[in-house]
Design a protein that fits this description.
51 residues; alpha+beta; two-stranded antiparallel sheet; 1 helix; globular
């Protein structure tokens, strides 16, 4: 599953946008590309749109 900058994802009821650095900024810190991929594979995070 390819993730790219500008994609919007949903995680724990909140929506985030993937930055140019392929990470997302959360209240409690930064989530990096590897973690995002893992969460999408396990179904915890959903892709809800993007470029």
């Amino acid at each position: 599953m390819a993730i790219s900058a500008g994609m919007r994802v949903s995680y724990k009821g909140m929506t985030f946008e993937i930055t140019d650095g392929l990470c997302i900024f959360m209240k409690d810190g930064l989530m990096v590309e590897g973690t995002i991929r893992k969460l999408i594979q396990t179904g915890e995070m959903k892709i809800i749109g993007g470029k």
